[in-house]
Design a protein that fits this description.
By secondary structure, the protein is of the alpha+beta class. 34% of the residues lie in helices and 14% in strands. The chain folds into two domains: 118 residues, Ubiquitin-like (UB roll) (Roll); 64 residues, [2Fe-2S]-binding domain (DNA polymerase, domain 1, Orthogonal Bundle), CATH 1.10.150.120. Helix 5 packs across helix 6 and helix 5 crosses helix 8. It is elongated and about 50 Å long. The chain starts with a helix and ends with a helix.
Length: 201
């Protein structure tokens, strides 16, 4: 029985079924770029609620999940995969708090149906550094003591990392204009301090 079939089974017949589902629910993904962009999923609407089995690559691990195709990626990350570093803000893709990377590009996970992320490489704040050390943006945020309540900061860090990857010599004006994340605590002066430290290296 496949992992998806086991995940769909209601009720689960035995502890052996649970163990089998858990053992084949994830496997390591080779560090290569996804072969197709998110749009290749071909989602044309958000009308169906029928659960579908999908393989979702998150932080270098492929997870077999069962979900309605129109479920926001944010909910799958938080509720199914327990990656709670990505936060809920507005729910309509405006505030940027839920920012993750799709194939290296910043994207608002609350506004992306999970089916559109199948075939893409999803990176959350938990997988940003890819190692046991902090990502340079995380370290700069720590050095500048950017966080106040901290709620929006994972999204800001993810957005900053994507912006500087595309343009390491981004100007302050262009950075401020491109930053898609709103901070209700008003940490923008400290954000700019961290940004200056990053571009001066």
């Amino acid at each position: 029985m496949s992992a998806c079939a086991l995940l769909r089974a209601k009720p689960v017949r035995s502890e052996g079924d649970i163990d089998a589902a858990m053992s084949c629910n994830t496997y390591r993904l080779a560090p290569t770029r996804a072969s197709a962009p998110p749009a290749a999923a071909g989602i044309t609407g958000h009308n169906t609620r029928e659960d579908t089995c999908m393989n979702l690559s998150v932080n270098g691990i492929v997870h077999s999940i069962v979900s309605a195709p129109d479920t926001p990626l944010l909910w799958v990350l938080r509720e199914e995969l327990s990656l709670t570093g990505t936060k809920y803000g507005c729910g309509i893709g405006v505030c940027g708090v839920c920012t993750v990377h799709l194939d290296g590009t910043a994207a608002q996970s609350c506004a992306i149906p999970v089916a559109q992320a199948e075939g893409a490489m999803v990176t959350t704040i938990e997988g940003l550094s890819g190692s046991g050390t902090l990502h340079p943006v995380q370290q700069a945020w720590l050095d500048a003591a950017v966080s106040q309540c901290g709620y929006c900061q994972p999204g800001m860090i993810m957005a900053t990392a994507a912006l500087l990857k595309d343009n390491p010599r981004l100007t302050e004006e262009k950075f401020a204009a491109a930053m898609p994340v709103h901070c209700r605590c008003g940490t923008y002066l400290r954000v700019m301090r961290a940004f200056r430290a990053l571009v001066s290296r």
